[in-house]
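Q: Can someone sanity-check these two? First one:
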Amino acid sequence: MEKRRLGRIGHETSVLVYGAAALGGVTQEVADASLEQALAAGINHLDTAASYGDAELRMGPTVERVRDQVFLATKSAERRADGAWRELNRSLELLHTDHIDLWQVHAVCDLPELDKVFAPGGAIEAFVRAKDEGIVSYIGITGHTEQAPVVHAEALRRYDFDSVLTPVNYHLYTADDEFRANFDVLYELVQDRDVALRTIKAIARKPWVGDRELATWYEPFTDAEDIRAAMSWVLGTFPYIAGLATAGETTLLGKAIAAEANRMDVAEAADHLARVDDYTTIFV
């Protein structure tokens, strides 16, 4: 699997980042098998969150076994320092480790939410403390909406985050002029600062209509060629992106691994995606 430098963090990360939201509601047996599939394919970067149901609990046995072989990231959506600190200690216990490589302020999707993080007594104080005490090595920020690139660019002006996790895919970037302009600003900023950039929602197709058939909160591509095109486009269009997070559904991991191993060139991927019916933004 291709590896890319994770900004100034320096880790040579697999371009597929294991998205552990997939483990939020599965059995231990399913979790163990999914993580083993990822590790066997060369994925060396695991990304989870305290808010992902039982994900950290399910990851603990594998993390303990391979801790020195993987880059481990988790997140807290708490907005107060005391709450974030409690969540960090719970994450350490569940993940069977005494340190986190990357701890991220999670789901910062608009400017009022960013203001909460930086308010007196806000979560950023816990993040800085954890880094100062050596419990975490790096601090990041994440977000999920079409406004995330704007919010994350502003976050970098307020604090020198080591990593950004933000959404981008073919439809968002090519069909929404405002999103494209905002993403371009963020993309240039992270390169200027040597900040790690990872992305999400590469294979998101549209919002769910009716009953959800998979664990993802959006309807993803499930056809192998659609997934191959979607991932190829993101990784080929933006070479500074160090990795894209796999979808929150264990049954799609094998298709993502296969797609990464046999990527299309950007022009072929764009042509394929332009012809996909019923492809739209997931942010409604």
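And here is the second, same format, sequence then tokens:
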Amino acid sequence: MKYFGGCDVGSTYTKAVILDENGKIVADTTLRSKINSEQSAIMAMEEVVGKVADLKSSKDLTYLVGTGYGRNKVPFADENISEISCHAMGVHVTNPDVKAIIDIGGQDVKGIAIDKDGTVKNFAMNDKCAAGTGRFYEAMARAFEMDLPEFSKLSLTAKNVIPITAQCTVFAESEVITLVGEGKPTDEIAAGIQMAIAKRCFVMAKKAGAVDSITLTGGCAKNDGLKAAIEHVLKLNVVELKTDPQLMGALGAAEYARQKGMAN
């Protein structure tokens, strides 16, 4: 049996996936990224390879593709492919009916349109500001003195929305702390945050060609409040993927590795 790997070195988390010849996921892992991208990749690959009895090291993989923020730092990678292409392919093999993605990473937000073969048809990216990214949500959760899973559900109980006017992560965090200090309902503040981010995703979704449905990838795809806000603002059905949405980049990289490795 041949095995194929994908390693997605992100700014916040590093993910790795191993596929067999049939495209089945046999192992995966998600680790908090280190400052050093190469160290992050080594740790993730050592952990994921250790879950497959037939493998002793990354060198035993038939083909390995690196992707993400630190894709050029993946040791033993046969090739590097952009995370935009890998997220598109990852979603395609998970659910070929989905044709549009909003990928919310640690430091940027991307809108991606998928062609019928899993390649990228079109994309747009906001990498000028951290607002709406994983880093932004971490800052918001800190302001509420909550962990991310707890914060992601907070807005779901809100009866009203308190608008968040600041567009910058630093100013938005300050604004939220002020509102919390004034005793405003926390769920309504959280609803304001989610609505503000959903509006930022509107342009990305349109550029991705979303018509009736879209899916979310990246760690923020697990944010229930954001999903609800996007459905409300964009008037689109948010399709939930059966495979962990945070793994899409690594899965797409592994699928590209499988296609290249099986062709050789």
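A (reply): Looked at the second one. The longest helix spans residues 186-207. The chain is about 40% helix and 20% strand.
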